[in-house]
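Predict structure. Input: UPF0102 protein Ssed_4252, 117 residues.
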Amino acid sequence: MMDNNEPISAEHGQAGENLAMNYLLEQGLTFIERNVRFKFGEIDLVMKNGKEWIFVEVKYRSKSQYGGAINALSSGQIKRLRRAAEHYMQLNNIDAICRFDLIAVDAGQIQWLPNAF
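Output follows.
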């Protein structure tokens, strides 16, 4: 049985990211990049909506027990994602509005929270 705090496999994580990316593409967002890694944090998906840059954290749970994916985001993860996004924008000379979205995938059900944090 998977505990809510137990890490999920990379394979399941990729499946969740694929579902999230396809969902966001269907909503009209533009895909830029995925799995951007820095030593201090990772960005699951980088998307755009017009001129707005969107940094997406994807949380996946195969079962919705223990509060589900939507409750799996910690304050430490938020801090690391914000730092990674800031670094990404500096490296790519991006001077634009950005936001942070959360995609929660629970047992195949997708919940999108724009401006989640």
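The longest helix spans residues 10-26.
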